[in-house]
Amino acid sequence: MVDGATVEWLKEGRLIAPYTDSGIASAWPDAFETEIMSPLALASDALVEAARQQGFLKGPLAEESADVPGLRSDLLGKCVTISSSNLGYAPGLDVFVIGVEEQELIERTKLTVLRRLLWAPSLLFAPGQAGVWFDPSDLSSMFQDSAGTTPAAVNSPVGKINDKSGNGNHATQATAAARPMLRQDGDGYYYLEFDGTDDALLSSTFTIATPVERISALRQVAYTSGDFIYAGSTSTGGLRLGQIGTSPALNIRSSGVGPSTSDLPVAVNGILTERFDGSSSRIAVNTGSYATGDTGTTTADRLVIGRDAGGTVFSSIRLYGVVMRAGTLTDGQMTGLRCWLAAKAGVTLT
Question: From CA 117, how far away is CA 230, in angstroms rounded?
Fold first, then answer.
């Protein structure tokens, strides 16, 4: 028997420790709450376990069945790695086992598992969410001509790359000599090579207002102070990224000169994070610290890659992927996007 005083103490609110992930609610409006009675004695340990579980369970999940040899009721409630050519798990994928059905006569077990669906930048774009997503690793999204009739091929020019955000803001280059080249590096990663002389891609026009986040996987092949990697239109100075100052400094600016970073050396792949939001603007490389400053309030009406707004200065870069979206990203969304882009460029994030 437990006396009444002890019962009341056990029901005290201080023994209940809620754990939330702001990224889930933002990315998945239909997310729901769950309560788990933790066997862990300390609330701090329970919070660590809750974070681990949410790390697996957040985002979309698929429920599937898989047969494995042996009687494996011991796998229930565990996160395991299994291989299944029928389910496309070869050479192996982490899944969470939520059901087991042992078949003793044939000594096999039917597992019911939860599998995380792959994260992709498309999750960032709700209907009507302004922005663009260009993915050179997807060869089906690119064409050698600006009309989009000749499929892209490695070591051939790219005259059109489709916007995968769902907004239809495709980028093109009508001048054949000014098209970047599709390349594949020694590790198998695809990128667009801009020569720094005349290569550029221009998206179609669209309306986008600050705050704006832009995250890229890129490499500075060469450095010339005054060259620009991105511009936000063909006539104004909004949402620009330039090689400004002493190598390898990168600066963001609109109507104001914003912050700079020197954390991405020339000839090194990296993940560049830019936020254009007036006095709250910031820039960082990989998972490093942000440099902050004021880029002003000028916005943009497109994304220009490889040159400035006026088409007078160009940059020599490799572009492995870029996402630009209106609104600020949550920490969870930022982590997902950085990791996704890092995997496209062979960048290790720490």
Answer: 32
